[in-house]
Predict the structure of Probable molybdenum cofactor guanylyltransferase.
Amino acid sequence: MTLSALILAGGRGRRLGNMEKALMNCDGRSLLERTINILDDIVDEVLVSVRDEEQEKEFEAYACGKQMVRDSYSDIGPLAGILEGFRAAKGKYIFVTACDMPFIDPKVVEFMFRCAEDHDAAVPLRLDGSMEPLCGVYRVEPMLPLIEMSIASGKRFILAPVFELDDVVGVEMEKIREIDPELKTFININTFDDMDKLDICQDG
Ligand SMILES: Nc1nc2c(ncn2[C@@H]2O[C@H](COP(=O)(O)OP(=O)(O)OP(=O)(O)O)[C@@H](O)[C@H]2O)c(=O)[nH]1
C-alpha cells in the first residue's frame, strides 16, 4: 500500500517575529530536513506544504528534492495546506505533521499508520480527550471532499473535516507513551522561549 506524509510549512511564524520555522536549525540541520529524513524511511512519498511560490523557492535548498505543494487559498491557515497535500497525495493514507515538531519519533509514525489501517483516520488523544490532528494519519479518499466542504463553509480549523469522518480511531496518549516515553513527538516550537529551551537557533 502506498503511504504519504505531509509536512505543513506554510505558516508565517508570527509569534517568532515572522521567522521561517522550517528553516530554523537544530543540531546542524534545518527542521524541514530533519523531518523529511525521519519520514523518508517510513513512507513512499513526502510532500512539503508551502504558502506560495516565493516560499517554495526559498525552501528549495532544504526540501531534499521532495515535491512542494502551494496553497491555493491564502491566509486561511493550515487547512489550506492540508487541502493541497491531500489533492497531490498518491498514497491511500497520509500522515500529517508540522515543520515545527522536530522530535517526531519514527516508531510513533509507524504506530499511527498501523492504528489507521482499515479506518478513516487515527488521531492522538490528548489527556483532556481532545484530538491532536498534526500527528494523525488519514485515509485520503473520505477526507479530501470533507476538507473542501469545510473550507467552502468557512470552517477553517483543522479538526472540522475530521469531525465529519465516520470512523476515527482515537489513540490514547498512554499508548503513545509506551513508544515515546517523554512524548517528544508532540513538542512544537512556537515562541522564542521554546527555541531557547530546546537549543534551536535561527538559520544563518
Ligand atoms: N500551507 C500552509 N501551512 C500553514 C499555514 N498556516 C500555518 N501553517 C502551518 O501549520 C502548522 C501550524 O501552524 P501554527 O503554529 O498554528 O502557525 P504558524 O504560522 O507556524 O505560527 P504563528 O504565526 O506564530 O501562529 C505549521 O507547520 C505552519 O507552518 C498556511 O496558511 N498554509
